[in-house]
């Protein structure tokens, strides 16, 4: 079976990103024990990633580079916001461990959209959070392999994500 719209795809890869000196640093390795599993066409991955693997099948390998413009864009200063420390309180208490600089915290905006924010700074009752994607502004280089392709179930298509192994559990 070839990768197409509404396929459930499993991939392994190494992701490298360019550092300031132009060297490629290994950022992430995803192996067969825990492959990345996604619903093709609605994965949230950069479009270029999906375009490059379209039509591939199990066993095919890929090498691709994605520029910031094709990936997660450039740094947006408007995505860095100051939030009151009080919104991080649970039962009136703030978890200081959670609010360490560099930590990623799952949050929800006023419309109920889920997002990840990175703690930039905590100072005088204010938490500076960066909601830019962690790979914003990065040139990404993937070297990987397709390890699984199957048809998505009608429920997965309706929900917009993979269920079961490697996917979402309700």
Describe this structure in words.
The chain is mainly beta. It has two domains: 7-72 and 136-159, Chitinase A, domain 3, CATH 3.10.50; 77-130, Beta Barrel (Thrombin, subunit H), CATH 2.40.10. It is built from two helices and eleven strands. The chain has helices at residues 47-53, 154-159, and strands at residues 7-18, 24-30, 36-39, 61-66, 80-84, 89-90, 93-94, 104-108, 114-123, 126-130, 140-151. The model has no long low-confidence stretch (mean pLDDT 91).
Instruction: Specify the helix fraction band.
Output: under 10%
The major β-sheet equals: 5 strands, antiparallel
Give the SSE order as H and E letters. EEEHEEEEEEEEH
- Strand proportion, as a percent range, falls in 35-45%
Distance between the termini: 27 Å
Brief account:
8% of the residues lie in helices and 41% in strands. It has helices spanning 47-53, 154-159; strands at 7-18, 24-30, 36-39, 61-66, 80-84, 89-90, 93-94, 104-108, 114-123, 126-130, 140-151. The strands form three sheets. Strands 1, 2, 3, 4 and 11 form a five-stranded antiparallel sheet that branches. A four-stranded antiparallel sheet has the order 5-10-9-8, with no helix packed on it. It has a two-stranded antiparallel ribbon with strand order 6-7.
Descriptive keywords:
single chain; 170 residues; mainly beta; Chitinase A, domain 3; Thrombin, subunit H; 5-stranded antiparallel sheet; 4-stranded antiparallel sheet; 11 strands
Please give the structural blueprint.
Blueprint lengths: L6 E12 L5 E7 L5 E4 L7 H7 L7 E6 L13 E5 L4 E2 L2 E2 L9 E5 L5 E10 L2 E5 L9 E12 L2 H6 L11
